[in-house]
Amino acid sequence: VKLYMYQVARSLAYIHQLGICHRDIKPQNLLCDPNTHVVKLCDFGSAKMLVKGETNIAYICSRYYRAPELIFGATGYSTAIDTWSHGCVFAELLLGQPLFPGESNVDQLVEIIKVVGTPTKEEIQSMNQNYTEFKFPQIK
């Protein structure tokens, strides 16, 4: 698992250095050769060159691997969304099942909160200012 995730991290570091965000990191987009243990990142159909200040679509990335800021509808996100997805894939490889198996966007957010805790008002505001007055379950 360590070797595979290291290769994915290197792939992400390379494309992020070029300003490209993959925006759909998930197990199905990782090609693994069982003989050589080489991992290739594939399916760049959702990938985009991120430009600071430019609005992006929020509904991107497969649900189980979607970063919280995307669930909150953020459009000014960074390559950090790929890093979140990378962590979700890592957890899935260790657990043998998705870490956050939400059945909808709201359920997905609840699954994340159950594991990492309730976001602070400041964290919510940084993701989307329209959600600052919403009440979220207080889970630590």
From TrEMBL:
InterPro entries in UniProt: GSK-3 (IPR050591), Kinase-like_dom_sf (IPR011009), Prot_kinase_dom (IPR000719), Ser/Thr_kinase_AS (IPR008271)
SMART domains the record matches: S_TKc (SM00220)
Sequence intervals crossing the membrane: none
Record's keyword annotation contains ATP-binding: yes
Family the UniProt entry places it in: Belongs to the protein kinase superfamily. CMGC Ser/Thr protein kinase family. GSK-3 subfamily.
UniProt name for this protein: Protein kinase domain-containing protein
Any single Pfam family the record assigns to this protein: Pkinase
Swiss-Prot/TrEMBL keywords: ATP-binding, Kinase, Nucleotide-binding, Serine/threonine-protein kinase, Transferase
Superkingdom assignment: Eukaryota
Lineage: Eukaryota, Cryptophyceae, Cryptomonadales, Hemiselmidaceae, Hemiselmis
Domain Protein kinase: 1-140
Molecular function terms, GO-annotated: ATP binding; protein serine/threonine kinase activity
GO cellular component: cytoplasm; nucleus
